[in-house]
């Protein structure tokens, strides 16, 4: 195996980093909600905790400030004095009043009196701000938890792709499977060949993308993914592998990116699973072992043989030859 940089890892992660954005980095702040959802979990939790902590401390300080400016803190033992907020005589008590109000606990010991218009205005501001912060952060956490990325981990791709004959035609094949009993609705598969090339005008394209036909015209790319399926790309005169032979495969350098998309049946959200095959992971003259067997009243899938292949007689010549 020749070690080289992959465009897409086997687990579907794309090895692309964006740098030197300059002023364009401000676009991330214009779409702050998506930016927060895309962050790693540790940063999401940190922002979640810091936002609530800072907001709580600021609002508690504002309640304490009102009590301080009105002189309520110096009239604690005067039973005839009407404070803005009853029983708020220091910062901890102001903080507890804010938490009781924000969380709608309402123990009844601390409350706003009617002779404090600034307290009423601050209470309205606190209610509006709390609703906005809750909607934004809780919505962000909910979207983060409900993302269908984890569903892609139960979609399997074979470790290698194979080239052999099927129905008298040379084909490139790989296998996909679904580990869950819940189905992928409207599942569709696509393949991209990523290979560097030079145009007749002398332009060098380092990561040129070319579509591999896996049954777009016949509807074979629309999958009923109940049991493992073998996806087939027929190598013909329109295929980019038209001149590929067993000997030339050893000197080629390309990457086949496989994209499987579908709707998760249980949530209705769109899920995408990806993998890739480099030239070292394409086996010439191999075929996948069967994994289906008929049991008493049902079909059984043996996933221990999912990645297994065996050699079959295959001409070493290209389709062109």
Automatic annotation (TrEMBL):
Membrane topology, from the record: Multi-pass membrane protein
Residue ranges occupied by any Inward rectifier potassium channel C-terminal domain in the UniProt entry: 155-320
Keyword vocabulary terms for this entry: Ion channel, Ion transport, Membrane, Potassium, Potassium transport, Transmembrane, Transmembrane helix, Transport, Voltage-gated channel
GO molecular function: G-protein activated inward rectifier potassium channel activity
Matching InterPro entries: Ig_E-set, IRK_C, K_chnl_inward-rec_Kir, K_chnl_inward-rec_Kir3.1, K_chnl_inward-rec_Kir_cyto, Kir_TM
Chief location bin: membrane
Location of the Potassium channel inwardly rectifying transmembrane domain: 8-148
Chain positions of site Role in the control of polyamine-mediated channel gating and in the blocking by intracellular magnesium: 134
TM helices/strands, residue ranges: 45-66, 120-143
Pfam families: IRK, IRK_C
Cell location: Membrane
Highest taxon above the source species: Eukaryota
Record's catalysed reaction(s): K(+)(in) = K(+)(out)
Presence of the UniProt keyword Lyase in the record: no
GO biological process, one term: potassium ion import across plasma membrane
Record's GO cellular component terms: monoatomic ion channel complex; plasma membrane
Protein family (similarity comment): Belongs to the inward rectifier-type potassium channel (TC 1.A.2.1) family. KCNJ3 subfamily.
Protein name from the UniProt record: G protein-activated inward rectifier potassium channel 1
Source organism: Baryphthengus martii
């Amino acid at each position: 195996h020749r070690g080289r940089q992959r465009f897409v890892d086997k687990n579907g992660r794309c090895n692309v980093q964006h740098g030197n954005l300059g002023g364009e980095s401000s676009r991330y702040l214009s779409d702050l909600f998506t930016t927060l959802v895309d962050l790693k979990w540790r940063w999401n939790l940190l922002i979640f905790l810091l936002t609530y902590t800072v907001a709580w401390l600021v609002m508690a300080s504002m309640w304490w400030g009102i009590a301080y400016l009105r002189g309520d803190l110096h009239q604690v033992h005067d039973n005839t004095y009407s404070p803005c907020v009853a029983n708020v005589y220091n910062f901890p008590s102001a903080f507890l009043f804010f938490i009781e109000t924000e969380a709608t606990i309402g123990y009844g010991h601390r409350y706003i009196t009617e002779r404090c218009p600034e307290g009423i205005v601050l209470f309205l501001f606190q209610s509006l701000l709390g609703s906005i912060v809750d909607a934004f952060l809780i919505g962000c956490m909910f979207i983060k938890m409900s993302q269908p990325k984890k569903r892609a981990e139960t979609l399997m791709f074979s470790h290698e792709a194979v080239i052999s004959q099927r129905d008298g035609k040379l084909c490139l094949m790989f296998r996909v499977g679904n580990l869950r009993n819940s189905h992928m609705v409207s599942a569709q598969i696509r393949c991209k060949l990523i290979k560097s090339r030079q145009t007749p005008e002398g332009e060098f394209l380092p990561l040129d993308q070319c579509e591999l036909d896996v049954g777009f015209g016949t509807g074979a790319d629309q999958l009923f993914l109940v049991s493992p399926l073998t996806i087939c790309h027929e190598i013909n005169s329109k295929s980019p592998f038209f001149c590929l032979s067993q000997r030339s495969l050893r000197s080629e350098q390309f990457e086949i990116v496989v994209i499987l998309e579908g709707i998760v049946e249980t949530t209705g959200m769109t899920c995408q699973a990806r993998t890739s095959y480099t030239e070292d992971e394409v086996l010439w003259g191999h075929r996948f072992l069967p994994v289906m067997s008929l049991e008493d009243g049902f079909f059984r899938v043996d996933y221990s043989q999912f990645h297994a292949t065996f050699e079959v007689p295959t001409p070493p010549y290209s389709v062109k030859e």
